[in-house]
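Q: Trace token order:
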Amino acid sequence: MPSFSKTQSKGSNVSLRCLFRRYRPAILFTWVLVVAEAVLFLLYPLLMGLSIDDLLKGEHRGLIVLSGLTLLSLLVGAGRRFYDTRIYSQIYATISPERVEKEKQRNTSVSKITARANLMTEFVEFLENAFPEIIGSVIALAGTLILIFVLNTQIFIGCLAVTLLIGLLYALTSKKTWLLNSGFNNELERQVAVIAGDDRKSIALHFQKVARWNIRLSDLETVNFSISWLLLAGMLVFAIPVAIQSGTSAHGAILTMMMYVFNYIESVIALPLFYQQMIRLREISHRLEQDDDETDGR
């Protein structure tokens, strides 16, 4: 288990890139485990299809290999989670006091310090919880598309077209997502000061504003999700008859094809949500770095 010394904690900027540079060896090892886990899960549909075909022939080799894959996935997944929790807890315990100290040096109000200390947790939580899922989803998406291409070119072209359309949708709404997160974070930074003011009307108005920003963010996410889901549902409806009419008579092969389509849908629907989280973290990082630059220029 690596230890994080004070000599490692001199950087003032807060961003995913800076945190990665600071704790590169520890974070890279977690990513190696994440990649291994994702590759193992990518093999499940293939081995399940082979197991079905083997069992229909009275053979058990595929089932034995599938059982081995299940055990190996468990060991890698559990090991990664044990390691992740300890590493990212240490990172949080190191960077949060640094942020508080820096804010005190610039005479930042207690309300802002409290809000920004809370925002710091989002970076660590993203690295610990969301980023492994992003890596897993990217590997699953890339691996699934390759396997779909091998199994059926028509379905692959359909999946590729849907992926590009969903990517375009989120690219077009990224600026609005940034602006909504900026407004939401501005209001959060006022929270402690508003509560300390002990004005009932101001407190009520503050929480109404927080709720409105949250609703606007949720509405945008819901619209994007709904459009994405309609495209993916159309892809699923298209894939079923194409897979059946592909000419194969092996039940396991058809099941494998449809499971990979489901894996594709699961990966594509998850990645935009992570993209929105990354926009939020970029806005927070931009906010903190702006203040750091102002302090350094004094």
Observations:
- DSSP finds ten helices and no strands in the chain.
- The longest helix spans residues 251-296.
- Residues 6-287 form a domain with the ABC transporter transmembrane region fold fold (CATH 1.20.1560.10).
- Confidence is low (pLDDT under 50) at residues 5-12.
